[in-house]
Amino acid sequence: MPRSMILPFILYCFVAAITPGPANLCSLASAVKYGRRQALRQWRGLFAGFAMVALASSAAVWFLGSVMNRYLRVLTWIGAAYILYLAWHILRSNGAEDANAGAHCNFLTGLVLQLTNAKIIIFCMTALTTYALPYADSYWDVLKIAVILPFTGPVANLLWLFAGAWLQKFFRQYQKPVNVVMALSLCFCAISIVVS
């Protein structure tokens, strides 16, 4: 990537990572409901899932090129459906703690969320096709950029997670309205991913 593309690449990564999306909103919701420690377990899965998507995207962009573009729409619909499922789950949450409180807030749920997160699939494919592929002489040039990508979105997830932990008392006091806002935000994410 030429030096002139570094700043646009960084800005793209920042804006795409910090804006509300499924992983950011789930990080916030998990920290509010279960606290920072439990939400960090889920974040590890978010990071691993993001890394897997970034690496898979690099291979898809380099080796499959236009063939992969045909299936991107299907992945988008699957991701949007999962986001709507998450919205429904958050909306139905009543705040009652049970014996398994926090059991579903773990590495595996974070991993599954990222592997089905259409926002990051599109983010990685766009970043690689726009900022790496046109300037790549080999697959390793694309892979170098792919390795950087997992340090963008998951860092933003951490910011949302810590914000949720910090505002936990406020969010618990107004749990129903907060859940409605988060669920509607996830619905907006799902709709915007499908119509874009």
Walk me through the topology.
Layout: H1 6-18, H2 22-34, H3 36-64, H4 66-92, H5 107-115, H6 118-132, H7 139-148, H8 153-166, H9 168-173, H10 175-195
Helix pairs in contact: 1-8, 2-3, 2-8, 3-5, 3-6, 3-7, 3-8, 4-6, 4-10, 6-7
Helix content: over 70%
The Cα radius of gyration reads 17 Å
Round the mean pLDDT to the nearest integer and report it.
Answer: 79
Assembly level: single chain
Q: How is this structure best described in words?
A:
It is a single chain. This protein is mainly α. The chain has one domain. Helix content is 80%, strand content 0%. α4 runs antiparallel to α6 and α4 packs antiparallel against α10. The longest helix has 29 residues. The protein is elongated. It starts with 5 loop residues before the first helix and ends with a helix. About 3% of the residues have low confidence.
Q: Care to give the gist of this entry?
A:
With 196 residues, the protein is mainly alpha-helical.
Question: Tags for this entry?
Answer:
196 residues, mainly alpha
